User: What shape does this take?
Amino acid sequence: MVHIVGAGPGDPELITVKGHRLLSEADVVIYAGSLVNEEILKFCKPEAEIYNSAQMMLEEIIHVIVLAEKAGKTTVRLHTGDPSIYGAMQEQLDALEARGIEFDITPGVSSFLAAAAALKQEYTLPGVTQTVIITRRGGRTPVPDSESLKKLAQHQTTMCIFLSINLLAEIKRDLMSAGFKSSTPVAVVYKASWPGEEKIIRGRLDSIVDQVKEANIDRTALIIIGHCLDNKGNYQPSKLYSPKFGHMFRQAIF
Ligand code: SAH
Assistant: This one.
Protein backbone atom coordinates (compact mmCIF):
# COMPACT_ATOMS: atom_id res chain seq x y z
CA MET A 1 0.00 0.00 0.00
CA VAL A 2 1.19 3.51 -0.81
CA HIS A 3 0.17 6.57 1.18
CA ILE A 4 0.70 10.00 -0.35
CA VAL A 5 0.99 12.36 2.62
CA GLY A 6 1.15 16.14 2.93
CA ALA A 7 3.92 16.95 5.42
CA GLY A 8 2.69 20.47 6.09
CA PRO A 9 4.60 23.72 5.56
CA GLY A 10 7.65 23.17 7.78
CA ASP A 11 6.77 23.07 11.48
CA PRO A 12 6.86 19.31 12.21
CA GLU A 13 3.80 19.75 14.44
CA LEU A 14 1.76 20.86 11.44
CA ILE A 15 1.50 17.39 9.90
CA THR A 16 -2.00 15.95 10.43
CA VAL A 17 -2.59 13.31 13.11
CA LYS A 18 -3.29 10.80 10.33
CA GLY A 19 -0.18 11.79 8.35
CA HIS A 20 1.89 11.36 11.52
CA ARG A 21 0.48 7.88 12.12
CA LEU A 22 1.11 6.75 8.53
CA LEU A 23 4.66 8.14 8.64
CA SER A 24 5.39 6.39 11.94
CA GLU A 25 4.17 3.06 10.52
CA ALA A 26 5.88 3.24 7.10
CA ASP A 27 8.60 0.78 6.01
CA VAL A 28 9.70 3.00 3.13
CA VAL A 29 9.58 6.82 3.09
CA ILE A 30 10.28 8.94 0.02
CA TYR A 31 10.33 12.62 1.00
CA ALA A 32 10.64 15.78 -1.09
CA GLY A 33 13.98 16.87 0.36
CA SER A 34 14.07 20.24 -1.39
CA LEU A 35 11.30 21.56 0.88
CA VAL A 36 10.24 19.07 3.55
CA ASN A 37 11.73 19.91 6.96
CA GLU A 38 13.94 16.87 7.74
CA GLU A 39 12.98 17.22 11.41
CA ILE A 40 9.74 15.48 10.46
CA LEU A 41 11.66 12.29 9.68
CA LYS A 42 12.11 11.79 13.43
CA PHE A 43 8.57 10.39 13.36
CA CYS A 44 9.76 7.45 11.16
CA LYS A 45 10.59 3.99 12.51
CA PRO A 46 14.35 3.66 13.10
CA GLU A 47 14.51 0.82 10.56
CA ALA A 48 12.52 2.67 7.86
CA GLU A 49 14.26 3.01 4.49
CA ILE A 50 14.39 6.72 3.69
CA TYR A 51 14.85 8.25 0.23
CA ASN A 52 15.19 11.91 -0.74
CA SER A 53 13.27 12.45 -3.97
CA ALA A 54 15.15 15.70 -4.71
CA GLN A 55 17.89 13.51 -6.18
CA MET A 56 15.57 11.11 -8.02
CA MET A 57 13.70 11.04 -11.31
CA LEU A 58 10.08 9.92 -11.62
CA GLU A 59 11.07 6.44 -12.84
CA GLU A 60 13.37 5.94 -9.83
CA ILE A 61 10.64 6.98 -7.40
CA ILE A 62 8.21 4.54 -8.99
CA HIS A 63 10.89 1.82 -9.01
CA VAL A 64 11.43 2.18 -5.23
CA ILE A 65 7.66 1.93 -4.70
CA VAL A 66 7.32 -1.10 -6.99
CA LEU A 67 10.08 -2.96 -5.09
CA ALA A 68 8.45 -2.10 -1.76
CA GLU A 69 5.08 -3.36 -3.02
CA LYS A 70 6.66 -6.65 -4.16
CA ALA A 71 8.13 -7.07 -0.67
CA GLY A 72 4.74 -6.36 0.95
CA LYS A 73 6.03 -3.13 2.51
CA THR A 74 4.13 0.09 3.21
CA THR A 75 5.38 3.25 1.53
CA VAL A 76 4.78 6.88 2.47
CA ARG A 77 5.44 9.43 -0.27
CA LEU A 78 5.88 12.65 1.69
CA HIS A 79 5.14 15.92 -0.08
CA THR A 80 5.60 19.43 1.25
CA GLY A 81 2.52 21.40 2.30
CA ASP A 82 -0.44 19.81 0.56
CA PRO A 83 0.40 17.51 -2.34
CA SER A 84 -2.32 18.94 -4.59
CA ILE A 85 -0.63 22.34 -4.86
CA TYR A 86 2.43 22.36 -7.18
CA GLY A 87 3.31 18.90 -5.91
CA ALA A 88 4.03 17.11 -9.22
CA MET A 89 1.75 14.48 -7.71
CA GLN A 90 -0.50 13.63 -10.66
CA GLU A 91 2.20 11.98 -12.75
CA GLN A 92 3.06 9.76 -9.78
CA LEU A 93 -0.56 8.81 -9.22
CA ASP A 94 -0.96 8.01 -12.91
CA ALA A 95 2.19 5.86 -12.88
CA LEU A 96 0.95 3.95 -9.81
CA GLU A 97 -2.47 3.47 -11.33
CA ALA A 98 -0.93 2.20 -14.58
CA ARG A 99 0.88 -0.47 -12.55
CA GLY A 100 -2.21 -1.41 -10.55
CA ILE A 101 -0.65 -0.15 -7.29
CA GLU A 102 -3.18 0.99 -4.69
CA PHE A 103 -2.72 4.33 -2.97
CA ASP A 104 -4.54 6.88 -0.87
CA ILE A 105 -3.92 10.55 -0.14
CA THR A 106 -3.74 12.37 3.18
CA PRO A 107 -3.88 16.15 2.77
CA GLY A 108 -1.52 18.59 4.45
CA VAL A 109 -1.45 22.22 5.56
CA SER A 110 -0.37 24.20 2.53
CA SER A 111 2.21 26.96 2.92
CA PHE A 112 -0.26 29.63 1.80
CA LEU A 113 -2.28 28.82 4.93
CA ALA A 114 0.81 28.86 7.13
CA ALA A 115 1.61 32.27 5.61
CA ALA A 116 -1.82 33.61 6.63
CA ALA A 117 -1.19 32.33 10.15
CA ALA A 118 2.24 33.97 10.22
CA LEU A 119 0.71 37.25 9.04
CA LYS A 120 -2.18 36.85 11.52
CA GLN A 121 -4.46 37.60 8.60
CA GLU A 122 -7.79 36.52 7.12
CA TYR A 123 -7.62 36.40 3.32
CA THR A 124 -11.38 36.71 2.72
CA LEU A 125 -12.57 39.95 4.32
CA PRO A 126 -16.24 40.87 3.74
CA GLY A 127 -16.51 44.04 1.68
CA VAL A 128 -12.88 43.72 0.54
CA THR A 129 -12.62 40.36 -1.23
CA GLN A 130 -14.15 36.94 -0.98
CA THR A 131 -11.72 35.21 -3.28
CA VAL A 132 -8.17 33.86 -3.00
CA ILE A 133 -6.21 33.20 -6.16
CA ILE A 134 -3.39 30.69 -5.91
CA THR A 135 -1.02 31.05 -8.79
CA ARG A 136 2.58 31.37 -9.93
CA ARG A 137 4.34 33.41 -12.56
CA GLY A 138 5.30 31.51 -15.68
CA GLY A 139 8.93 30.40 -15.68
CA ARG A 140 10.29 27.03 -16.77
CA THR A 141 6.76 25.71 -16.22
CA PRO A 142 4.51 27.79 -18.46
CA VAL A 143 1.25 29.33 -17.24
CA PRO A 144 -1.62 29.44 -19.78
CA ASP A 145 -2.10 32.91 -21.33
CA SER A 146 -5.63 33.13 -19.97
CA GLU A 147 -4.15 32.94 -16.44
CA SER A 148 -1.41 35.52 -16.80
CA LEU A 149 -0.85 37.59 -13.67
CA LYS A 150 -2.05 40.62 -15.58
CA LYS A 151 -5.40 38.95 -16.23
CA LEU A 152 -5.82 37.48 -12.77
CA ALA A 153 -4.87 40.73 -11.07
CA GLN A 154 -7.77 42.55 -12.71
CA HIS A 155 -10.05 40.92 -10.14
CA GLN A 156 -8.17 42.62 -7.27
CA THR A 157 -8.62 39.59 -5.03
CA THR A 158 -6.17 38.29 -2.48
CA MET A 159 -3.39 36.59 -4.45
CA CYS A 160 -0.95 34.00 -3.15
CA ILE A 161 1.92 33.63 -5.59
CA PHE A 162 4.02 30.47 -5.32
CA LEU A 163 7.40 29.58 -6.83
CA SER A 164 8.09 33.09 -8.06
CA ILE A 165 10.09 35.04 -5.48
CA ASN A 166 12.96 35.40 -7.97
CA LEU A 167 10.53 37.05 -10.41
CA LEU A 168 9.28 39.72 -8.00
CA ALA A 169 10.27 42.67 -10.22
CA GLU A 170 8.30 41.19 -13.14
CA ILE A 171 5.36 40.48 -10.84
CA LYS A 172 5.32 44.08 -9.66
CA ARG A 173 5.29 45.25 -13.30
CA ASP A 174 2.44 42.87 -14.24
CA LEU A 175 0.32 43.83 -11.25
CA MET A 176 0.77 47.55 -11.79
CA SER A 177 -0.14 47.27 -15.46
CA ALA A 178 -3.29 45.37 -14.37
CA GLY A 179 -4.41 48.28 -12.22
CA PHE A 180 -2.97 47.54 -8.77
CA LYS A 181 -1.74 50.86 -7.34
CA SER A 182 1.90 51.22 -6.28
CA SER A 183 0.60 51.58 -2.71
CA THR A 184 -1.04 48.11 -2.72
CA PRO A 185 0.13 46.16 0.32
CA VAL A 186 2.30 43.11 -0.28
CA ALA A 187 3.77 40.60 2.14
CA VAL A 188 6.51 38.06 1.53
CA VAL A 189 6.67 35.14 3.93
CA TYR A 190 9.87 33.07 3.91
CA LYS A 191 9.75 29.56 5.40
CA ALA A 192 6.33 30.07 6.95
CA SER A 193 6.04 28.08 10.21
CA TRP A 194 9.66 26.77 10.18
CA PRO A 195 10.78 27.09 13.82
CA GLY A 196 13.42 29.82 14.09
CA GLU A 197 13.63 30.43 10.32
CA GLU A 198 10.39 32.18 9.35
CA LYS A 199 10.75 35.75 8.05
CA ILE A 200 7.97 38.20 7.24
CA ILE A 201 8.49 41.23 5.03
CA ARG A 202 5.61 43.68 4.79
CA GLY A 203 5.64 46.45 2.22
CA ARG A 204 3.91 47.95 -0.77
CA LEU A 205 4.20 47.17 -4.46
CA ASP A 206 6.66 50.02 -4.96
CA SER A 207 8.93 49.00 -2.06
CA ILE A 208 8.80 45.22 -1.85
CA VAL A 209 11.43 44.36 -4.49
CA ASP A 210 14.16 46.29 -2.64
CA GLN A 211 13.01 45.01 0.78
CA VAL A 212 13.21 41.39 -0.36
CA LYS A 213 16.61 41.94 -1.96
CA GLU A 214 17.86 43.48 1.27
CA ALA A 215 16.57 40.51 3.28
CA ASN A 216 18.35 38.14 0.85
CA ILE A 217 15.24 36.05 0.26
CA ASP A 218 15.43 34.14 -3.01
CA ARG A 219 13.55 30.87 -2.37
CA THR A 220 10.96 29.08 -0.19
CA ALA A 221 8.82 32.18 -0.03
CA LEU A 222 5.28 33.17 -0.86
CA ILE A 223 4.15 36.53 -2.15
CA ILE A 224 0.78 37.65 -0.78
CA ILE A 225 -0.88 40.64 -2.38
CA GLY A 226 -4.19 42.36 -1.85
CA HIS A 227 -6.23 44.85 0.07
CA CYS A 228 -6.92 42.34 2.84
CA LEU A 229 -3.46 43.38 4.06
CA ASP A 230 -4.44 47.06 4.32
CA ASN A 231 -4.60 48.59 7.76
CA LYS A 232 -7.14 46.85 9.95
CA GLY A 233 -10.72 48.09 9.97
CA ASN A 234 -11.25 48.38 6.20
CA TYR A 235 -13.78 45.55 6.08
CA GLN A 236 -17.42 44.91 7.02
CA PRO A 237 -17.99 42.77 10.11
CA SER A 238 -19.25 39.30 9.26
CA LYS A 239 -22.89 38.30 9.28
CA LEU A 240 -21.94 35.08 11.03
CA TYR A 241 -21.41 36.67 14.46
CA SER A 242 -23.61 39.75 14.04
CA PRO A 243 -26.48 40.15 16.58
CA LYS A 244 -28.70 41.37 13.69
CA PHE A 245 -28.56 38.13 11.74
CA GLY A 246 -29.90 34.77 12.75
CA HIS A 247 -29.01 31.47 11.15
CA MET A 248 -29.50 27.76 11.59
CA PHE A 249 -27.68 27.67 14.94
CA ARG A 250 -28.58 31.03 16.50
CA GLN A 251 -31.50 33.53 16.49
CA ALA A 252 -31.12 37.24 15.72
CA ILE A 253 -31.58 39.37 18.84
CA PHE A 254 -32.52 42.70 17.18
N1 SAH B 1 2.77 21.76 -2.03
C1 SAH B 1 3.39 22.93 -1.44
C2 SAH B 1 3.96 23.87 -2.48
C3 SAH B 1 5.13 23.27 -3.26
S1 SAH B 1 5.77 24.36 -4.46
C4 SAH B 1 2.37 23.63 -0.52
O1 SAH B 1 1.21 23.21 -0.45
O2 SAH B 1 2.76 24.57 0.16
C5 SAH B 1 7.08 25.14 -3.61
C6 SAH B 1 6.78 26.59 -3.33
O3 SAH B 1 5.86 26.66 -2.25
C7 SAH B 1 7.97 27.43 -2.90
O4 SAH B 1 8.67 27.94 -3.99
C8 SAH B 1 7.30 28.54 -2.12
O5 SAH B 1 6.72 29.49 -3.00
C9 SAH B 1 6.15 27.79 -1.46
N2 SAH B 1 6.49 27.30 -0.11
C10 SAH B 1 6.58 26.02 0.30
N3 SAH B 1 6.78 25.96 1.65
C11 SAH B 1 6.82 27.24 2.07
C12 SAH B 1 6.95 27.85 3.35
N4 SAH B 1 7.08 27.12 4.47
N5 SAH B 1 6.92 29.20 3.42
C13 SAH B 1 6.74 29.97 2.32
N6 SAH B 1 6.60 29.44 1.09
C14 SAH B 1 6.64 28.10 0.97
